[in-house]
Each structure stands twice: as structure tokens, then as C-alpha cells.
Design goal:
mainly beta; Thrombin, subunit H; 3 domains; 4-stranded antiparallel beta sheet; 3-stranded antiparallel beta sheet; 0% helix; 38% strand
Length: 240
């Protein structure tokens, strides 16, 4: 069974539990079972694999292009990471290669910028056209969220950078997370805690593990393996 694209929304095409086919309103569509498939994204395209290799299909079940890859991934910001033999790069929504450079690994675009790893295993970010966002390279660079990303410096410590590669503040951490509603998970020599955009701790306690704040409260684990809920001031609200 096939449907015209105008009859469907991308999130109405449901990937099966075994990730081999799609359903629409409870019925199998496209008349095909794949070796593996990934869900449709808002661009109306999905990554699939059959015996010919990996490629993308439209919401009508048609191949977007003739090429086949070792691996394809979902579209983000109208770009998809693909693996051509051992080379990684991005293609656009018509299947055209976006830039000439190849990498040993590519992430997914977030906020129109993407992390990549080059031949010497250093990381940096590229823009939508594949141009480096800044001149520096790092031991690791994560996805951008709310305008900032985490990078690992040559000394092994972590900092936040903005989209131009500028450091957000003068603080360095043993480990670091992205900001969630202006608060980031951070780790120093005493353990995990929550910090603001100035790198300042929200409270003096340290924990073995922490989660991000969810509507003002966060799940944490103490060093004696106790699970507790704290508020944004670090006060214990509930022992679980």
C-alpha cells in the first residue's frame, strides 16, 4: 500500500518495533521490508538499509537518490551524515554532498552547527556549508544546545564554548554537560554538581551522579549510593 505524501505527516509514519518496515494508521506501507530502518524526520526522509546498502527514502517510499552508502543517518537541519566506505560527510535533502572534505566521524547538525572528528582524531565544529566554525581543535567536542557546547582541552579538562569558539567563562571542569534551562551538570575533584553560565556552583554539595533539573528538581546519587531529589538551591526534598 502507498499513500501520496500530501495524505501523511512525517510523524504518522511509524517505524516497526524490529526497525524493518513502516506503518501508517496501523497498516504496512511501501510494500517492502528493510534490513534496518530509522524513523522519518521532519524533512520527510528516512534512512533505510537493504541488500544494496544504506540510502534515504521519501514519504512515498521512493529512493531519494541512486547512491548507496556503508551507513546513513537521520536528517537534522536538512543535513544527513553518511559513511562512504570509511569517509564521513553530509548530504543535503536532495542527496547532494554538501562539502568536499571528509572526516573519520561526523555528528548530527544541532542549531545549524555540527561536531566532526578529523584524521588526527581531534574534534571541532563546522557550519551548514562545512566550514570550520573557529580555528581551534579539541580532544572532544559535543553537540550545541542553547548556543553552547562542551569541549575537552589538551589538558583533559572541559569548558563551554559559544558558536564562534569563544569560552563562555574562565572555569574548567573534570567533566561537563550542556546547559538545560541555563544550568549545566559539572564535575570537579570532589564530584558532580550543578553550575550556572558563569561556572558558579548552585550549592556546595557534591554527588556521585546527577541528572538535569526537571521542572525545578533533579535526581542525584550520593557517594553512599542513596538516591535523593534536590531543588535548584541544593536542598534535599525527598529521599527515595
Amino acid at each position: 500500500m502507498q499513500y501520496a505524501k500530501t495524505d501523511m505527516k512525517y510523524n504518522e509514519l511509524i517505524l516497526s518495533f524490529d526497525q524493518t518496515h513502516f506503518t501508517y494508521k496501523g497498516e504496512n506501507i511501501f510494500g517492502k521490508t528493510f534490513l534496518q530502518a530509522l524513523k522519518f524526520h521532519k524533512e520527510g526522509l528516512a534512512a533505510v538499509c537493504d541488500y544494496s546498502g544504506w540510502y534515504h527514502i521519501t514519504m512515498q517510499g521512493c529512493c531519494l537518490y541512486d547512491a548507496r552508502y556503508s551507513r546513513t543517518f537521520g536528517y537534522y537541519c536538512q543535513r544527513s551524515a553518511v559513511v562512504d566506505a570509511q569517509s564521513w560527510y553530509h548530504i543535503d535533502i536532495v542527496g547532494k554532498r554538501v562539502y568536499s572534505e571528509s572526516y573519520v566521524w561526523c555528528g548530527n547538525y544541532q542549531e545549524n552547527i555540527c561536531t566532526v572528528r578529523c584524521d588526527d582524531n581531534r574534534y571541532f565544529h563546522i557550519d551548514l556549508n562545512g566550514k570550520p566554525a573557529y580555528p581551534e581543535k579539541y580532544h572532544y567536542a559535543g553537540d550545541f544546545k542553547d548556543g553552547f557546547a562542551c569541549v575537552r582541552l589538551p589538558n583533559g579538562l572541559y569548558k563551554h564554548i559559544d558558536m564562534k569558539g569563544n569560552f563562555l567563562n574562565n572555569k574548567m571542569f573534570l567533566d561537563l554537560g550542556v546547559f538545560h534551562k541555563g544550568i549545566a551538570n559539572a564535575k570537579d575533584e570532589n564530584g558532580w554538581f550543578h553550575s550556572d553560565k558563569n561556572g558558579k556552583e548552585l550549592y556546595p554539595q557534591r554527588y556521585q551522579q546527577i541528572e538535569v533539573f526537571y521542572n525545578g528538581f533533579a535526581l542525584t546519587e550520593t557517594f553512599d549510593n542513596q538516591k535523593i531529589i534536590i531543588n535548584e538551591q541544593g536542598k534535599t526534598i525527598l529521599n527515595l
